[in-house]
Amino acid sequence: MLDLRTASPPAVDRALTILEAVARSNRGLRLPEIALRLGIPKSSAHSILVALERRGYLQRNSSGRYLFGPKIFTLANIALSQMTLREAALPVLKALMNGTGVAAKMAILDRNQAVLIEQVHPPRGAAPMTWPGKRLELHCTALGKALTAFQPSDQWKRLIAEHTLPRHNDNTICSPDRLLRELALTRERGFAFDNEEFDLGFRCLAVPVFGAANEPLAAIGLTGTVFEIHDGNMASLVKQLSFAAATIREAFDSANREKGAADNLLRRRAG
User: Fold this and answer.
1) Cβ(143)–Cβ(105) under 8 Å?
2) Cα dihedral sign for 167, 109, 211, 117?
3) Distance CA 148, CA 160 (A)
4) Is the sign of the CA dihedral 104, 108, 113, 119 positive or negative?
5) Do the Cβ atoms of 101 and 122 come closer than 8 Å?
6) Tell me, what's the pLDDT at 128?
7) Range of the domain at 56
8) Which residue from 64, 66, 44 is spatially nearest to 56, judged by alpha carbons?
9) pLDDT-based confidence at 76, cuts 50/70/90?
């Protein structure tokens, strides 16, 4: 629910108003027009425009009009890609949860951190419930390990160096060298394993979801208690995870092909 009682920072409001005004314009807007629309001095409007231009959200053309910069389109493409990925994954995650009886989750790597973007819990599941958008640690979660292990191996040390490795209990891997060995093992066997490294009493398995260029788009995982995930069923759970990951990739590729065909049709009509 929106908190309407907390005032928005004026500078943020003005920056967003500028972006919305530019979006509605056909040829972009000049500084005097923007200042007039915001009802603020040109010097104040200029300061905000400079910040947006420096960050790549706006750019000026030869006539001094402000237009959208490349950063806007990058963010839009990422958002659309993640939306398509979530839409493709949700029915597969539901089927995975129903077939295994434990929570099924999906995360992506964003700014060198794992971010949960979808989850499905069984009605009476014991796994801790969290929220989409939560950032997960790379060293002690199966989703984090899966996302890291299938990056180019020359990036592993950089990813580890940019994060602390806090200890949550005696099972947590806190040594960089040990974590490097764990990532190599994860890559070799094709799945990641969190053996009570974050929450005592809970285990998690995860595998990557690869894209068309064989890059890891995301990771999906199963989380359950030590009685739900154990040596006796681990191979079966990994097999179901791998099948689900392949199914998500196929659905994602299909959705992108359909989107590409629709975009081409719109371009032909516009031309």
Assistant:
1) yes
2) positive
3) 9
4) negative
5) yes
6) 67
7) 10-68
8) 66
9) low
Q: Say which residue, 224 or 157, is predicted with more confidence.
A: 224
Taking the C-alpha atoms of residue 18 and residue 6, their distance in angstroms, rounded to an integer, is: 21
This prediction's pTM: 0.69
Of 40, 68, 96, which marks where a domain is finished? 68
**Do 14 and 96 fall into the same domain?**
no
> Which residue, of 68, 93, 108, is where some domain finishes?
68
Is residue 194 in some structural domain?
Answer: yes
End-to-end distance of the chain based on CA atoms, in angstroms?
A: 43
Using CA atoms, how far apart are residues 209 and 104, in angstroms rounded to an integer? 14
4-to-7, 8, 12, 49 alpha-carbon distances in Å:
7, 9, 15, 27
Average pLDDT for the chain = 86
Reduced to 3 states (helix: H, G, I; strand: E, B; else coil), residue 157 is helix
Contacts of 136 (CB under 8 A, 6+ apart): 107, 113, 114, 115, 116, 143, 144
Asked whether residue 4 is domain-assigned, the answer is no
215-228 pLDDT, tens digit per residue, is 899 999 999 999 99
- Count of structural domains within the chain: 2
pLDDT in tens, 32-56: 999 998 888 999 899 999 999 998 8
Residue 263 forms part of a structural domain: no
Residue 94 in tokens:
């539901």
CATH number of the domain within which 212 lies: 3.30.450.40
Tokens of residue 102, six digits: 């434990």
Residues 109 and 160 in one domain: yes
Q: What is the 8-class DSSP label of residue 5?
A: S
Residue of 84, 141, 150 whose CA lies nearest to 116? 141
Q: Give 252's pLDDT tier (boundaries 50, 70, 90).
A: confident
